[in-house]
Q: What sequence folds into this?
């Protein structure tokens, strides 16, 4: 097959989408397709304009000998509002209420189309941040952390609740579960997090913030830095949370009683990430 | 922006990659871009030829009023051999040996570029199979199950080791851990798996097969069907495994002693999935 512009556009688009945030040199594309750098440059302009037009992300070009181009997923405000609206509709269902004010979300966190949208949404928040690694705690935060990691193209690490033989040596911290007030232990394999790493924490649900605070302690133990915290859903909590500054996609208010009550609404994500007038 | 063919090619490629195995009607593309169906049809031919040429998957068109096109990721034999070779090189490192013949893999299973390749690789095996859901057991199987689910565009469910309040009502089974011979319990939320569902099991590591057999029992309890089983790595095991027919990407042989020994080699995946002469 002779590789024409049309074929190059398809494969360049595929490559950039599969390798977000990775700088690719014009030279490597040029060699791959047997095309002049000037042609590749025009291809990239077309991809850039298309992604911008559809509100999906930016293609940035870095000039110079070691330069090239990379794609960074970034939802427009319009797309972000659409996704948050969908999530609110999906969660706003009293049959999701579980004892203790918890909310059943496992079905949503196992659906690829939702994880893709949520991953791109949260990645938008960190598009210009210096992130080295995504951290989550087992079990239900994992799919979200992985989805965000895919779109930031950074590794994710899983904090475990107890010692597992297949992790090797670990660092552990105690933390107070904000909801149950019980003292628990969480730990992370020593090999997985480097000193000085910039960490984004992702979890499924925020109540008292005890688990979040535990992960913050672990980050300190590893001499790493916290860049930000994000949860899928924020529940109600009486009193002061153990952490502040966490971003939530949706907010859920519940009441157990003769008539179970559950109301979902947008969390603070949209107002935090999109300042007024921005799109 | 006037939407030209070049812009359509970029966005159609993006859409198909983000929605694998999903049939999209020519009509919806036609309306989205304000282009004639005949033009969309030509666009799809270009995408199809490009994906085939680079060994990345097939674009199939379904004729008729309810027809359309879909993209199914499928690695060529050449790409599959390359990925398995990379995995062997990454794992073939004695410092990965852990006590009890276990192998440290958590770093690899947290790297997006590896999960993308492994997801496409395993999805290739089930390209023409009727799969409804991917099943795994917490914790280390989750990233792999999610990666496969993303490329098959099917939901995944997580079997838990003990009861968790946020799962609602569950079905549980006992199983014998093949390595430790201890009896354990695993359970799955009742809401997550439908009767008659076709299930693919994904896990990180196979030794005695006890965990796999436990998941098979769960599938029976839900009156669902097992389509196939796949692990990232197969370890050595003396005696007969509790399950047969599981596919492995790599095989690891280890020996603990004064000089730790670890050898990685390709598992049975390539010979199982690519019959002779096929590419």
A:
């Amino acid at each position: 097959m002779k590789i024409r512009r049309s074929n190059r556009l398809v494969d360049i688009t595929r490559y950039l989408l599969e390798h977000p945030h990775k700088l690719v040199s014009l030279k490597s594309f040029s060699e791959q397709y047997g095309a002049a750098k000037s042609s590749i440059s025009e291809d990239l302009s077309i991809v850039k304009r298309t992604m911008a037009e559809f509100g999906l992300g930016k293609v940035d070009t870095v000039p110079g000998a070691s330069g090239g181009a990379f794609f960074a997923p970034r939802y427009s405000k319009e797309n972000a509002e659409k996704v948050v609206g969908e999530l609110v509709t999906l969660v706003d269902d009293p049959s999701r209420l579980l004892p203790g004010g918890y909310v059943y979300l496992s079905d949503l966190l196992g659906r690829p189309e939702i994880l893709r949208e949520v991953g791109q949404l949260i990645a938008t928040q960190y598009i210009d941040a210096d992130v080295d690694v995504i951290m989550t705690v087992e079990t239900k935060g994992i799919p979200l952390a992985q989805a965000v990691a895919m779109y930031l193209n950074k590794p994710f690490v899983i904090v475990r609740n107890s010692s597992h033989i297949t992790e090797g040596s670990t660092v552990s911290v105690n933390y107070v579960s904000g909801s149950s007030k019980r003292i628990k232990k969480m730990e992370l394999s020593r090999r997985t997090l480097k000193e000085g790493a910039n960490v984004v924490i992702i979890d499924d649900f925020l109540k008292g913030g005890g688990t979040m605070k535990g992960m913050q302690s672990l980050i300190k133990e590893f001499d790493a830095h916290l860049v930000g915290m994000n949860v899928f859903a924020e529940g109600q909590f009486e009193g002061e949370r153990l952490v502040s500054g966490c971003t939530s996609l949706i907010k859920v208010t519940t009441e157990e009683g003769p008539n179970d009550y559950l109301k979902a609404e947008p969390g603070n994500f949209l107002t935090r990430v999109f300042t007024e007038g921005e799109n």
Notes: Chain A touches chain B through 61 residues (CB under 8 Å). The first strand of chain A starts at residue 57 and ends at 62.
